[in-house]
Amino acid sequence: MPMILNSVAFNEGSSIPVKYTGDGTDLSPPLEWSDIPSGTKSFAIICDDPDAPSGAWVHWVIYNIPPSMSSLDEGIDSDGSIDDGITQGINDFGGIGYGGPMPPRGSHRYVFKIFALDAILPSRPGITKAGLLKLMSGHILTEAKLTGKYSRS
Q1: d(CA 43, CA 64)
Q2: Residues contacting 15, CB < 8 A, separation 6+
Q3: Which fold has domain 4-10+17-152?
Q4: How far apart are CA 97 and CA 64, in angstroms?
Q5: Which pLDDT belongs to residue 77?
Q6: What are the extents of the domains in the chain?
Q7: Are 71 and 32 contacting, i.e. CB atoms less than 8 angstroms apart?
Q8: Which regions in the chain score pLDDT beneath 70?
Q9: Any alpha helices (H) in 55-149, and if so which ranges?
Q10: What is the pTM of this model?
């Protein structure tokens, strides 16, 4: 059975509530996952906007989430390293942690991808999406995604 990623804040393909965007309080949304494969040693999550004018815009890089966890609460602190060895990277706004949707105009998709990994990765607070993808290479057991939308005029 494939791994599943959900949020109580929004459903697949639906609108992301304003509080989880740059127009609101910019909190990271609550996420939960299930059907975790055996051998999982950690999880990583990347959120980006594939509709950004300059190419995929990275909103969140977070990894080394322990395999004992099956959810993240809303509003994860924007520290590089947080409890339980969880580490956050840099987003394309230039900050550490989550940066919510703020499309220049129109409707954009925001894809949250979770990766089940067979390793705990070296902790590098401030790592980029590209850097994390390189670290994860050869360690991905499976992945799941959740896509939300947000619009501005």
Answers
A1: 6
A2: 148, 149, 150, 151
A3: Phosphatidylethanolamine-binding Protein (3.90.280)
A4: 14
A5: 87
A6: 4-10+17-152
A7: yes
A8: 80-81
A9: 129-136
A10: 0.96
